[in-house]
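lol ok so funny story. i was supposed to be doing the assay writeup but got distracted and ended up predicting the structure for this chain instead. priorities right. anyway since i did it might as well share w the group, maybe its usefull for someone
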Amino acid sequence: MNNKNMKTWLLDYGIVFVLIILTIVFSLGSKNFLKINTIFTILKQISITGIISIGMAYVILTGGIDLSVGSIAGVSSVTAAIFMLNGYSISVACFITLIIALIYGIINGLLITKINMPPLIATLGMTTALRGLAFIITDGLPVFGFNKVFGNFAKNNLWVIPYPVVLLILIFILAEFILERTSIGRYIYGVGGNAEASRLSGVSVTKIKIFAYSVSGFLSGVAGLVLLSRTNSGQPSAGNGYEMDAITAVVLGGVSLTGGEGKLPLVIVGVLIMGILSTGMLMLNINEYVQQLVKGLVLLGAVAFSNMSKQLRTNLESKI
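and the output, tada:
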């Protein structure tokens, strides 16, 4: 491997070394960090963020952004809880909730493609509206007392792997297959790389963007159901902050904020880094406000590195 290839490889996969270094640092700081229970706790925690991040990756790959994912997860959580509390079976309540979450995503896509709203404004408006909706339908109170069997999903394992982690793995496999093995995946990358060129080549840019936001909305709904199963209570404030964790994980994973570049497996690495950061700082008794500061700095650093690596990659390619 020559020097240029080595630099390119480091730009693409350097995030893996960050993951390893963080694991070593926290394991040295706490003797309990590498215990099996801690590892499975981290995996359970990242399952929700990971599911949301996969949908976020689809959106960012098209050159967009979705700030509504946390609110969709939260309102989906209380929606399913209310349905079950009113006598609907678990399967029916989950099905209806996911259809509604899909509709939220479609609305985002339509606002952006048909009304030409900037993605930031459209999804920011949606997140505020849905957060308000969650408080309206619950009167600002937690929803509990529904079928306790629903909580078994988050508590039980498939062999030794928690069900939420199994669900994340299955969603990742399907999402990765779509991106890498289907024409839709190629169109997603194409629209993010150059929307006008994609349009001239016959690709429906509108449909691809709506598809990406629909995936994001649907997966946020799935994450909301997992969150409800974990807490056994529908909280109107649930999902708050997940959008920033998802954006950070996606950018850490090397997905360009301008769209068209990035790999889903590295997004999962970014999700792992966020989970390790949160758990590691908690185990070291680091102040919550300091944790927020660190997460903010990580996001800023990830965006800065993304921009610099893009420029470096362009310079390297120009020298070939």
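The radius of gyration is 20 Å. The chain is about 75% helix and 0% strand.
back to the writeup now i swear
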